[in-house]
Write a structure and sequence with these properties.
IC97/Casc1_N; 9 helices; single chain; about 450 residues; 18 strands; Dynein axonemal intermediate chain 7; nine-stranded antiparallel β-sheet; extended; alpha+beta; four-stranded antiparallel β-sheet; beta-tubulin binding
Length: about 450
């Protein structure tokens, strides 16, 4: 029922968004970007617009004529400069991003080679140690373009036109190691933006345009001032660089807890390897809570959707989310994927009435099993979930506790074995608790489930 409701909700939301977008595009005077004829018509009409000439013809005062002419020339110059700036930016972004592509175009003389990873050991093989592993490291603060240019001559303005000479010309600077004092290394100091959080001192990598890859070498005398978030270093020449940090520095988790705060409201706490993170979930909105304030002032205490929060945290350099590459760089408990995903879904269904927490026995029970703690009012127990050959999920209450000396799959005498996790939970709940779970909003359930699936606490803790 909840799955059907969330599917209908997402479909309706997307349809509403499409209708709003189409109305917006057709009611503000701009053409639909998907309609090439409308775009061409708009450009032609704009090019032939004589409104500025009408203003010049109607102007009687010479001062007004001069003012309109100057405004027209400034607008033309602005359009031209914006066009050059956008073109230059697109070319730079395309060049910097090309190392992520594996082109199979036979017309390319030197196709980009893909990165090779070892799935068993989780480390890169046959890879230069000075080459940055872009799966293990993530840039923070964007890409910095550092270069030296000749000062271009000022444009010459004549009657109705402007004469421009060549654009920016790069000032030549030695690319090798300096042999004398006339060409010393380039000293660079960068202060990170206020919206960036560093879990560790950042590393500096330079862009190798020839091999189209990020590299560690060529950077010397690196120093970092944590209080000012300022990093200083020297390069052999002017070149593009970026500040890197480990993508999964805060993993694996040291513990986690999902605690209810009331109907359709929970507190999700993750004890990371470096710092702890708490996320409050209410209905379909999330709010971040973190002791470290720098770089997160724009996120703290603000409600947003789960997807928006995840995107904002990654942009700020705070990562607790996993992907298909995480297991190559982080120790984890290998678990059966289908069992794990079903448990997350059932935890979300009962999140309003039950608290779930990390158990140390989860790492010792084997790949086919999952162990977690469940709290309800004053009840504290451990539960055991396994998958049988018929792909039905059986759950039972374990006899051991967190303080037991060794793991044992023995269940509590007299307890029943249930087909699903939630049926077992219902046997230990009051009618009021069961009623809370029955009235959980589907948007809340979907938000909790998505957050659990994005962090995978049963595997990466």
């Amino acid at each position: 029922k909840n799955s059907s409701a969330i599917t209908k909700w997402k479909t309706a939301s997307m349809s509403t968004f499409c209708v709003q977008w189409e109305r917006y595009m057709r009611c503000d005077g701009y053409p639909d970007p998907k309609d090439q004829r409308a775009v061409n018509t708009f450009i032609s009409l704009w090019r032939d617009d004589l409104e500025s000439n009408v203003l010049l013809q109607e102007a009687k005062d010479p001062k007004e004529v001069l003012k309109y002419q100057e405004a027209l020339m400034e607008m033309q110059e602005l359009f031209h400069s914006k066009h050059l700036f956008i073109a230059e930016k697109i070319l730079k972004v395309q060049t910097a991003a090309s190392f992520m592509l594996n082109s199979e175009d036979p017309r390319m003389k030197k196709p980009v080679q893909p990165l090779m990873f070892s799935c068993s050991q989780g480390t890169c093989e046959k890879m230069d140690p000075d080459v940055v592993d872009v799966m293990q490291y993530t840039s923070v603060g964007g890409v910095f373009y550092c270069d030296l240019f000749h000062l271009p001559p000022r444009p010459i303005r004549r009657k109705g036109y402007t004469i421009l000479q060549d654009g920016l010309r790069v000032f030549p600077y030695p690319t090798g190691k300096p042999s004398n004092e006339a060409c010393p290394p380039v000293g660079v100091s960068v202060t990170l933006p206020d919206w960036i959080t560093n879990v560790e001192p950042p590393l500096v990598a330079r862009w190798d345009a020839g091999d189209k890859q990020w590299r560690w070498d060529g950077i010397t005398d690196v120093s970092y001032e944590k209080a000012e978030a300022k990093i200083s270093f020297k390069m052999e020449t002017f070149q593009t660089f970026a500040l890197m940090q480990k993508t999964y520095a805060n993993l694996p988790f040291q513990g986690w807890e999902l605690r209810p705060l009331g109907q359709d409201s929970v507190l999700f706490t993750i004890k990371g390897a470096i710092f702890d993170i708490t996320i409050t979930i209410k209905n379909d909105q999330c709010m971040l809570q973190l002791e470290q304030q720098r770089g997160l002032s724009h996120l703290m205490g603000k409600w947003m959707s789960g997807h928006a929060l995840q995107k904002a945290m990654l942009k700020a350099g705070v990562n607790i989310f996993v992907n298909e590459h995480t297991h190559k760089y982080v120790s984890f408990c290998r678990k059966e994927s289908l069992t794990e995903q079903v448990v997350y879904k059932q935890m979300a269904l009962f999140a309003s009435a039950c608290a779930f927490s990390w158990s140390k026995w989860n790492a010792k029970c084997g790949e086919e099993h999952l162990v977690l703690q469940v709290f309800w009012i004053l009840l504290q127990t451990s539960f055991y979930c396994e998958q049988n050959t018929n792909y039905f999920f059986e759950s039972q209450k374990l006899k051991i506790t967190e303080n037991s000396e060794a793991f044992s799959p023995d269940h509590v005498p007299g307890s029943l074995v249930h087909n699903t996790f939630i049926h077992m939970l219902e046997d230990n709940m009051s009618p009021d608790g069961i009623d809370m779970t029955r009235h959980s909003n589907y948007c809340f359930v979907d938000t909790v489930q998505n957050l659990l699936c994005a962090t995978r606490p049963l595997v990466f803790s």
